[in-house]
Amino acid sequence: MIQLDRRQQLIVLLLVGVILFSGGYRLAQIKEKSSEKVKPALDSAEQNKDKEVTVHVFGAVAKPGVYKVSQGARVIDAINMAGPTGEADLDSIKLAAKVTDGQDISVPSKAGLDPAAVGVTPGTSTSTGTGRNVFTAPAGAKSGAAAANGLVNINTAGQSELDTLPGIGPALAQRIIQYREANGAFQSIEDLKNVSGIGDKNFENMKDKITVR
């Protein structure tokens, strides 16, 4: 058996301590790297959850309501969740646009009655057999809320009359009425764009069919 003097024993103990310290330090590094690999995965899952946005889909859909979609989803994704009806005029919407949190997505319905279906040409008058001529307004205008020229008066029209306008469904018609009740009569037809859900595209489609007189 090798006999070591005190100095040699101290050297051996020092070497053993260095080896143990190095091993422990290396083990700590391995554990730290493993935790770093797990953390990004957890953070990524949490971030994906936070990246959901909330949108309101209404109009010509089977299930209007509030939906959660992933951030970066397109308008068509939200509309498909609500189920577009056969009357939905999807061509008038920017389906490829990205949704934003809190966005209102109004799905317009297709234009009103086809004049050919009732056998009357819009803007003509027909005899009633009583000596009076009755003016037949173009599709999209109704009596009572319509002016003499067949335009829908957005200051007096009810939901059913507003619903006949291109791009306006029952939900959006109700919004127009609610806005009118809260803010008073529209001063110009352009004020209609102040109603949530009515953009420039919708307004262009109906501006020739409405009045505030």
Automatic annotation (TrEMBL):
The lineage of its organism: Bacteria, Bacillati, Bacillota, Clostridia, Eubacteriales. This is ComE operon protein 1. GO terms for cellular component: type II protein secretion system complex. GO terms for biological process: DNA repair; protein secretion by the type II secretion system. Pfam families: HHH_3, SLBB. It comes from Pelotomaculum propionicicum. Residues 160-179, 190-209 form the Helix-hairpin-helix DNA-binding motif class domain. GO terms for molecular function: DNA binding. SMART domains: HhH1.
